[in-house]
């Protein structure tokens, strides 16, 4: 743990350390593609702080008392929505959940009008999931609330990238030089994109593996420039050799409009993370999956729930990472600054 954002800061009124002040200036969390290593480190160390809070007998602190968080989900979610809700409540915020399917969106209300309405009722933070890439960026331009991207289309899932990084560092110590194989539907995966940015920022050796039809154009092309520097493989048996981490991704059938693979059985035969394939990775290699899992398709049941699986730990870490993100961004809002001045943090 670094000296930044210690547990005492959460419960004891203290000015933020100068290093933290300089490392974090974001009011929104839309993506992590432009995060500096210092910013990523600050999220990691603040997550350590939040883990300590979670380990207490009564894991509740008043750090965000007086703050209203609205989760606004236009797409289904189990892990992300519940962990943001819990993260806000543990920090003392009021949390309101809005599912687009049960809101005035079904009557034709636009995203911008919905965001303005939630601001008008008193929201300070909008945690937003949307099936359209870029929707949280649009929202952030039309509100004074902080906007946190909880997954937008194919584009980004920044808190998933952060929690995966945190989970890997917890087990490996450091990801620099480690071989991390991400296998599956890379084309449709916002999780893969956010992981690639976070892991390559720390010098990990990231290998993505998929059939050509499930790889984004330009990925692996070092001259491309706009994409993270990863190696691309199409043969999982080769890609997985000596891996420190194997992350399987879900086949995103809801985003597929065409025959990307011959069929689930053929896909599993070539790309499923199963015991035989995992035996080619380093002994004790970590197995990750962001969930939800299609067991028997991209990952076998025995690997998903085996000794090397860190899937449940990913979910648990998601609460602490989201606590850290909420705490950091709210310090940049007018109300957050007011609460800090009043000594509530
Ligand atoms: N990993 C993830 O985003 O899961 P949910 O869709 O359940 O939130």
Keywords, separated by commas or semicolons:
single chain, 345 residues, alpha/beta, Rossmann fold, 2 domains, 5-stranded parallel β-sheet, disordered N terminus, binds phosphoric acid mono(formamide)ester
Short description:
By secondary structure, the protein is of the alpha/beta class.
Supply the CATH class of the largest domain.
Alpha Beta
The CATH topology annotation of the largest domain reads as Rossmann fold
Radius of gyration: 20 Å
The secondary structure category is: alpha/beta
Instruction: Indicate how many domains the architecture comprises.
Output: 2
Number of strands: 9
Strand order of the largest sheet: 7-6-5-8-9
- Proper CATH architecture of the largest domain: 3-Layer(aba) Sandwich
Number of helices: 14
Ligands, deduplicated: phosphoric acid mono(formamide)ester
DSSP strand content? 5-15%
State the separation between the terminal residues, measured CA to CA. Answer: 19 Å
State the CATH superfamily name of the largest domain.
Answer: Aspartate/ornithine carbamoyltransferase
The backbone outline, from C-alpha atoms, is: globular
């Amino acid at each position: 743990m670094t000296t930044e954002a210690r547990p005492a800061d959460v419960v004891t009124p203290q000015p933020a350390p100068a290093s933290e002040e300089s490392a974090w200036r974001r009011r929104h969390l839309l993506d992590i593609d432009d995060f500096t290593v210092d910013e990523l480190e600050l999220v990691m160390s603040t997550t350590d702080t939040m883990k300590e809070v979670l380990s207490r007998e009564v894991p509740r602190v008043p750090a965000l008392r007086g703050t209203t968080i609205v989760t606004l989900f236009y797409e289904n979610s189990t892990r992300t929505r519940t962990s943001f809700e819990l993260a806000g409540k543990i920090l003392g915020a009021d949390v309101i959940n809005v599912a687009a399917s049960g809101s005035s969106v079904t009557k034709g209300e636009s995203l911008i009008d919905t965001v303005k309405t939630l601001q008008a009722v008193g929201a300070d933070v909008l945690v937003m999931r949307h099936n359209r890439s870029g929707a949280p960026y649009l929202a952030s331009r039309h509100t004074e609330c902080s906007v946190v991207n909880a997954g937008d289309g194919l584009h980004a899932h920044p808190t998933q990238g952060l929690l995966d990084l945190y989970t890997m560092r917890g087990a490996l110590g450091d990801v620099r030089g480690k071989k991390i194989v991400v296998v599956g539907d890379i084309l449709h995966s916002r999780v893969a994109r956010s992981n690639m940015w976070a892991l390559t920022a720390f010098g990990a050796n990231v290998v993505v593996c998929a059939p050509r039809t499930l790889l984004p154009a330009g990925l692996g092309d070092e001259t491309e420039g706009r994409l993270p520097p990863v190696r691309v493989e199409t043969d999982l048996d080769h890609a997985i050799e000596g891996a420190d981490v194997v992350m399987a991704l879900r086949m995103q059938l809801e985003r597929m409009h065409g025959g990307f693979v011959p069929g689930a059985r053929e896909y599993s035969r070539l790309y499923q993370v199963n015991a035989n394939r995992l035996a080619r990775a380093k002994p004790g290699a970590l197995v990750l999956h962001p969930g939800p899992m299609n067991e028997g398709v991209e990952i076998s049941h025995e690997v998903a729930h085996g000794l090397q699986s860190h899937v449940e730990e990913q979910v648990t870490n998601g609460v602490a990472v989201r606590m850290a993100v909420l705490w950091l961004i709210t310090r940049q809002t007018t109300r957050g600054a007011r609460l800090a001045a009043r000594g509530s943090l």
